[in-house]
Each structure stands twice: as C-alpha cells, then as structure tokens.
C-alpha cells in the first residue's frame, strides 16, 4: 500500500537544510523509496501502493497529489463512474489562490496534496475530507515532518514519541471522539484541513484552516427532503462511488456479512458494466445461536459471486498468543488481528486481489445510529406539526421508549439544545471500569474538541453519529504484516466524499423513511438487493461471542489490565476490574466491549512505553 514521508523546512536556515539532507540520505539508502517532490523547502518520498494509487506531478512545478483523485460533477443522478482527474495548467492558479479549497470542492478521492506557489513563497498541504490515507505531522529542529506510517518515521532514527495522558484518560472514560493527540509530539492532518507554510515571514510561520465543514452540509438550508428524489440520489451516488473505486482493480474481495450495507455494495459491484472478479466471504461463529450465512449466501448468489465461509471460533482464541503489531499513532482493535488479517492476506494472495470492499459507513451514513434524534431535527426544521407525533411513535418502536417520552425528550432538546447529560446514560454503560474520579470528570466535561466541531454552540451528537469513524483517523495499514509486504487496500464506498456529503444533506427523518431503520436506503436499492434482505429489519449479531472470549481468557485479561499501565496510572478502578474478571458469579454490569476497549488501550500504551508501567507517560 502507498506510504509517504516528506518534510518542509525554511530554506534560509542552514541547520534545517542540513537536517533535511541528512533525512534524505538515510531514506534513499533504502532501495524501495523514491523521490516524488524536490523543491525549495520541501521534499516528499513514496513507496508501495497499487498503480491506481500513486501520484501526479502538477504543472509548472506547483507540487504533487499523492493517491487517487477524481472529478466532481453536478448531476446528482448520474451513476456512472467518476472520471479520474488530471490537473491542467489552467487549474493551478485557482487551486493556489484558494489554498487548496478548490481541490476539495471540485475533486474527491483518497489523496494528500502538496501545493507550491510559483514564487516559492509558501506551501499548502491538504488532506481530502473522507479518504483513509492518513497524514501525521511532527516537528524536530525546526523541520516539519509528514508521514503516513509511524513505523517509517521511527526507522529514520531521529524521532521519538511519548504518550499523551489526556488521550489515555479519554480512551478509558469512553470518549473515543477526542482530538487530544495520542502522542504528544504527533498530530493528524484532519479531513479537509490545510496546513500552510508562509516563507515570506522570518522565521517561517505555520497555520491551519479547515476547507470542509460537515456541520454546514448537515444543516443545509436546502436539504433533500423529498423521499423519491433522495432515494434516486442515494442510489446513484453509491453506485457511482463503488464503480469508481473498483474500476482500477482486476480482482477484489468483498466482506459480506449478509446485512443491508454489505449487500448494497455487493449489488453495486455486480451492476458494474465491466466489473472485476469478485470473491465474497463471510465470517461466522460456529457455536453461535445466530447465523448470518443464509443472508450472505443470498446476496452472493443474487450477484453471481463466488462465496466463501470461514469460522471465527471464540473458543480457540488465546489472547496470550496475540500477534505482535507494528507501532500505530492511535489505539487499534486487537480483535481485528486475531486470525482475521492473516486469513485475508492469504485469501488476497490466492485470488490475486488488490482491494477488499466493505459496507463500512452504512450504520452512520444511512442513520441507523441516530434514529433517536430524528424528531429533534424535524422540530428544528419544521416546528411542532401533526407529523411529529407519528414520527415519535415510529421512533419509539426502535428506542424502547413510549411515544410521549420520545416526544418530550425531543421537545426538550429542541428548546434547550443538547447537553452532556443527554449522553451521560450512554457514557455510563461503557466506562464502568474507569476510576470514579475519571467518570465524574467525564460527566461534567464531554464537549468534543475535534476541529470539525469546535465552532458549535452545542454538542452535535447527531452529526457525530452520522459521521461514523470519520472524525478519528482509522488504521489504514495492516499492522501485523511487514510494511513492504503487498497487502490489499480496504475500500469503503459509503465513506467516499460524494456519498457522505449527500447522506448529510438528507435529514435524519428522511433516512428514517416509512418509520424503518435505513428506510430510505431500502427504498433506494429495491430491485438491486434481494427482497428478503431489504425486508429484514433485524441483524443477527452473534450474541455471546465476546463473552466467550472473555470467559476463556480471564487470567490473561487480569494480568494485562490489573498489572498494566492503566491500573498503575490510576485510570482503571482496580476493584471493579477484579470483580468484572472474577471467575465467581458477580453482579458486575461491565459489558465485554468495554473490557476489549481497555485491552486495546493497554496494549497500545505498553508498546509505546517499552513495557514500562507508570514511567513514560509524559505530560504534554
């Protein structure tokens, strides 16, 4: 997969220039790196990557675009693949004048752009809004370092990083939407963010600004409210994004769960005029009471795709034999690396696949995660009308509350706005193991600090749910594999920028069409997805899967959590953790997902602290 490193420095400073030359010599001594940009005050180097995800050099020495880039278009019901974008000479000046804003408005993809103005008086670095290619930033000796994989940065031998205790506190308290840097010396370049270097000042100055604002899309004064129009646009956008992202691949894999979202992507891949060879596969619990395989088989058969089934047996999982992972800037889920990534790598090699497609982004994009807030948005847009009571009744069927409770809560949030107390009940179910002092602090202070939300007057819980995993940089590389090993890119068309922007412009209550979970999506893909899948309003969640893993790994979990960084730092409640992991019957209400969240955080912290417990957590 494509990886990059680059640096920006003040060319008027001899020490910075010498440091840049030293980094260049170190990097180019490794034969698999190539220089993609070499200009006054900036260099960029690349390695790996599918041929469709490389880079293009911009005319007139105006910089480079790393990754994939496609042209935006105006027709909302055109479902053909988007055209790959080639930046022409006439496009350069508008891009430079807007400091990259035009790039985000007129193009989309999975890219990082480095723009250099003709007088070499400044450089802009722009991250696309929703693509998974990460960009992280650190500084040393006045030089600003850009990288996509922290392992590459560490291998240079010049950088070292320390854990930010604020990030650990947020993780343990259940606040995963934090923008506190996980590492004190590293920060991400967020989606739609521009990092600008001004060489006209001395010393060189560095500023950031946002060019993409999801809040403005979600509260558009001209929303798409007509269900038929919205359904046609959703169908076209998802088909177009899927066709575009699959077009450069000869063979792909498809994670097919049998749920609605992956079945929609399955149908869109099958509907391509010239499609790649698709192999679908499904994981299942061989001992579980619920079984997704009949639904996955139905979707695969409807698309005429090869379909494979693999058992993921919780009774065979031994956390003491967990794989060793490469360092990561943020916490990653160990569950994803317990046999699954190895199996996918083998399947990729067997089928010659270069990408894995998934339905990720459907829960958030089609608003399954935010049904409870649909009436609040309706009231904000239309006030208290007769339809509000019907909508309250429909929501009550999904929220285990009465119609009057739904209506009363929605009216309160409409009049008073949303408060931290609105999230407190949810928060309390996922941080029962946090130290009591930490839990009380979280109840008072739960305002998100992500740049997308900093200007909000109130906590935009509905918008945060609708964005899914986008606010937090997600793992892009397989951390269980050698960085130079060929691994497939995981592609999620429902997180593509045109799809996300359209989903946000459609109000929650329209997504909840006919009072059904993902009702609009069901209507949009009628005739493409098998009718039984569209009609099924539940999903078999493999109950007991995580509980079985916990039951068989209690001792390992006790050692890792009770003798680890989080407990030694006073972040975990030792007594509550002991009770939750006791082999004896107890009244603990801790859910397994919280245990695994703390396990992920613990393993990540230990890795950065070289096995030390209390020392090594540096204050920012």
UniProtKB/TrEMBL annotation:
The enzyme's E.C. designation: 6.3.5.4
Record Pfam families: Asn_synthase
Keyword Translocase: no
SUPFAM superfamilies named in the record: Adenine nucleotide alpha hydrolases-like
Catalytic activity as recorded in UniProt: L-aspartate + L-glutamine + ATP + H2O = L-asparagine + L-glutamate + AMP + diphosphate + H(+)
Pathway given in the UniProt record: Amino-acid biosynthesis; L-asparagine biosynthesis; L-asparagine from L-aspartate (L-Gln route): step 1/1
Top EC class of this enzyme: ligase
Single GO MF annotation: asparagine synthase (glutamine-hydrolyzing) activity
Annotated protein name in UniProt: asparagine synthase (glutamine-hydrolyzing)
């Amino acid at each position: 997969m494509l990886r990059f490193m680059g640096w920006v420095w003040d060319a008027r400073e001899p020490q910075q220039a010498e440091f840049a030359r030293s980094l260049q010599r170190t990097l180019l001594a490794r034969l698999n790196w190539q220089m993609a940009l070499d200009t006054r005050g900036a260099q960029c180097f690349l390695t790996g990557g599918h041929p469709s995800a490389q880079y293009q050099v911009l005319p007139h020495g105006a910089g480079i675009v790393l990754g994939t880039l496609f042209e935006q278009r105006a027709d909302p019901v055109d479902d053909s693949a988007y055209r790959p974008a080639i930046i022409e000479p006439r496009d350069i000046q508008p891009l430079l004048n807007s400091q990259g804003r035009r790039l985000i408005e007129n193009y989309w993809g999975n890219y990082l752009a480095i723009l250099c103005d003709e007088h070499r008086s400044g450089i802009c670095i722009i991250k696309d809004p929703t693509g998974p290619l990460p960009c992280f930033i650190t500084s040393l000796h006045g030089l600003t370092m850009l990288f996509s994989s922290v392992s590459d940065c560490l291998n240079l031998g010049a950088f070292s990083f320390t854990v930010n205790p604020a990030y650990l506190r947020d993780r343990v308290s259940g606040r995963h939407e934090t923008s506190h840097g996980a590492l004190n010396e590293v920060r991400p370049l967020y989606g739609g963010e521009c990092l600008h270097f001004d060489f006209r000042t001395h010393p060189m100055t560095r500023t950031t600004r946002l060019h993409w604002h999801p809040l403005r899309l979600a509260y558009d004064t001209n929303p798409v409210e007509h269900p038929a129009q919205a359904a046609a646009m959703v169908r076209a956008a998802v088909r177009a994004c899927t066709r575009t992202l699959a077009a450069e691949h000869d063979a792909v894999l498809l994670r097919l769960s049998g749920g609605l979202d992956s079945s929609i992507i399955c149908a869109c891949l099958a509907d391509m005029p010239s499609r790649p060879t698709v192999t679908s596969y499904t994981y299942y619990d061989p001992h579980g009471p619920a079984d997704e395989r009949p639904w996955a088989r139905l979707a695969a058969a409807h698309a005429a795709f090869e379909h494979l089934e693999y058992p993921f047996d919780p009774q065979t999982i031994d956390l003491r034999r967990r794989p060793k992972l490469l360092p990561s800037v943020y916490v990653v889920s160990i569950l994803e690396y317990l046999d699954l990534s190895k199996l996918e790598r083998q399947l990729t090699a067997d089928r010659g696949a270069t990408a894995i497609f998934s339905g990720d982004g459907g829960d958030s994009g089609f608003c399954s995660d935010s049904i409870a807030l649909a009436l609040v948005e309706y009231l904000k847009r239309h006030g208290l009308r007769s339809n509000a009571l019907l909508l309250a009744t429909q929501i009550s069927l999904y929220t285990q509350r009465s119609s009057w409770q739904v209506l009363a809560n929605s009216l309160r949030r409409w009049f008073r706005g949303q408060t931290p107390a609105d999230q407190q009940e949810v928060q309390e179910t996922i941080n029962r193991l946090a130290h009591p002092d930490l839990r009380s602090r979280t109840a008072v202070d739960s305002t998100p600090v992500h740049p997308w939300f900093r200007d909000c007057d109130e906590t935009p819980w509905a918008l945060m749910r609708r964005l899914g995993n986008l606010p937090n940089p997600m793992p892009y590389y397989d951390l269980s594999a050698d960085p130079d090993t060929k691994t497939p890119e995981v592609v999620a068309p429902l997180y593509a920028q045109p799809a996300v922007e359209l989903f946000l412009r459609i109000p929650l209550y329209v997504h909840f069409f006919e009072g059904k979970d993902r009702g609009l999506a069901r209507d949009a893909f009628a005739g493409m997805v098998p009718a039984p899948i569209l009609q099924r309003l539940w999903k078999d969640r493999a109950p007991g899967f995580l509980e079985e893993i916990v039951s068989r790994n209690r001792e390992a979990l006790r050692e890792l959590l009770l003798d680890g960084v989080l407990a030694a730092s006073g972040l975990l409640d030792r007594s509550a953790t002991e009770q939750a992991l006791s082999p004896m019957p107890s009244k603990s209400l801790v859910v397994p997902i919280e245990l695994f969240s703390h396990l992920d955080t613990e393993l990540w912290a230990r890795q950065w602290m070289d096995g030390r417990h209390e020392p090594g957590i540096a204050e920012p």
